[in-house]
Specification:
Blueprint: H1 2-28, H2 32-38, H3 50-58, H4 61-92, H5 98-110, H6 117-126, H7 133-156, H8 161-169, H9 174-185, H10 187-202, H11 206-211, H12 220-230, H13 235-255, H14 257-269
Helix pairs in contact: 1-13, 3-13, 4-7, 4-10, 5-7, 7-10, 10-14, 12-13
Length: 270
């Protein structure tokens, strides 16, 4: 009975989580006339992709998707790479002042992004990186690396010393030990960080809103926000834009779900 009760409670939570997505999907494939006649909670009388097509063309969504994919993937790869290098020095290398470095990374995670906008804007304009995707990639890489370094340092501090000793006996230097021993063993944790960094960067709005002013550089959340503020969109077009905005991130999460699960389980075992 307890197992069935837990299963029922989990099923109820899943339905509550999926209900908004189902509502968005149903309204995205309605016509404006169908929505006006039957309301938002009714099933669509006929499947229509007119709203999705209109929004795709209006927002130049193919280019917007490419911009978000390039920025998010670049930040995820660079963020994981810098986090691994920093954590290797702090967690395994045990550099002097390790606690102060970790405290600095912790404080960096607590600083609101709003307080960083003016100095970042000033630096970007001085080095001619304003309205550039490279500026956003650099900023997000630094932000994500601060969190990744703090997390990975705690993981690598518990790294099995036997593996490090075996690598040293085989004549491996520090970089080779990192590439051949530490990184492969830590791959599940790195995969978790990569997934989180990608999704977090994909959903960011504030910093791209400040630094990406050209239509050709817009990301998905920025295109959705600006388009809905600029044009008088009906409910079906709004649902279509929301569906197209969240669908790539959901697909990415589903593709890497098994990797994410293995990474969490590996971290629990360690």
């Amino acid at each position: 009975m307890r197992r069935w009760f837990v299963l029922g409670a989990l099923l109820a939570v899943v339905l509550l989580v999926l209900a908004p997505f189902a509502l968005i999907l149903a309204n995205a494939v309605k016509t404006p006339q169908d929505y006006a006649a039957n309301g938002p909670l009714a099933l669509p009388a006929d499947i229509s992709f007119a709203s999705l097509k209109a929004f795709w063309i209006r927002a130049d969504f193919g280019r917007t998707l490419a911009n978000s994919a390039v920025i998010s993937a670049s930040v995820a790869v660079l963020g994981v790479g810098f986090s691994l290098l920093n954590a290797y020095a702090l967690g395994i290398g045990r550099v002097r002042g390790r606690r102060w470095f970790l405290a600095a990374f912790l404080v960096a995670n607590l600083v609101p992004q709003e307080s960083l906008i003016y100095p970042l804007y000033h630096i970007a304009t001085r080095v001619d990186l304003y309205d550039s995707q490279l500026a956003v990639i650099i900023i997000f890489t630094a932000i994500q690396s601060a969190f990744g370094t703090f997390l990975l340092s705690a993981v690598l501090a518990q790294f099995p010393p036997e593996l490090l000793d075996a690598a040293a006996i085989d004549g491996a230097g520090r970089l080779r030990t990192l590439a051949r021993v530490v990184a492969p063993v830590s791959r599940p944790t790195l995969a978790v960080l990569f997934t989180f960094f990608f999704i977090w960067t994909w959903n960011e709005l504030f910093i791209p809103l400040i630094f990406l002013v050209s239509n050709s550089n817009q990301t998905v959340p920025l295109a959705l926000a600006l388009l809905q503020g600029e044009h008088d969109l009906d409910a079906t077009a709004t649902s279509a834009s929301a569906l197209l905005g969240i669908l790539p991130a959901v697909l990415f999460f589903l593709v890497f779900q098994r990797t994410l699960t293995r990474g969490v389980a590996a971290g629990a075992v360690k």
